[in-house]
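Hi R.,

Here's the chain you asked about this morning:
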Amino acid sequence: MTPDELADRLDNAADNLGDVVARRVVHTAELGRGMIRANASGRPGPNVITGKYRSSWEVVGRAIPHGAQCTIGTNAPQGRRLEYGFVGPDSLGRIYTQPPFPHVGPAVPRMEAVLREQMLGAVEEVLG
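And the predicted structure, written out as tokens:
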């Protein structure tokens, strides 16, 4: 490969990198949401009563230069209590001793591994 061919290949990769990374970041976030939902489907996570909490998890993505940023979260008021537990009085004075039912934390190492694989795949895709 000549230096000019290499330069053209790198220019092409740079032009496509942002879209490829964005697509793979969003894909990873969607998989992460699935992992969290799966963990929130019974012990050791919280028990499922109606499925409303599980379905409250959302992925919000936005474009940034050369990629994307995604947030996985819930607006459900019980989210933090389910993940971390709660001991003490609530705003109405009721006393709780609720143990944690982790469902987000256990998914993070798997999401990190998937994201690492996706970024390696992005590099292969744009340079391939």
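The mean pLDDT is 90.

Let me know if you need anything else.
M.
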